[in-house]
Amino acid sequence: MLKKIVLLSVFALSACGWHFKNNEVLPEELRTLTFESADPHSDMARILRNQLQLNDVKLVSKQEGISKVRLVGASSGSKVVSVFKQAREAEKLLTLNVQAIVDVPKKGAYPLEVSVHRTFFDDSRAALAKSAEKEMIMKDMYEQAARQLIIKMAGLHKELNQSK
Fold it and tell me: Which residues constitute the signal peptide according to the record (predicted)?
């Protein structure tokens, strides 16, 4: 009996088009933004812009009284974490650090910083395949960093309400 009720409720909810609203997470001041970046065509800027739009953030051109998010920089690096018997690099730790500033008019600027880490098995005998794999991993890291920035922007609710 319980299975039938659960099954019926799942079918009813999926049939009516019910879904969570993502834009409810962000504060009202951050639902319409101006996006700035030193390099607007970089991978990080492009992916962050796309993630903002996926979260129902309306991006507008520079206007007075509109909040802005400024991508300050993205830096990546790698460290060797293990080696083969022949003293060649085996595994690397890839790191991506992203800094951004959310500037809300009459409330202040809020710096945001996220770091993403991934391990990468680096076999020098398959250099071409590994470079393509590394590019895919870096793209995934950019997407994760953009999602983390949006989560941190959603966490600004408390700070924005205190400064009213």
Answer: none
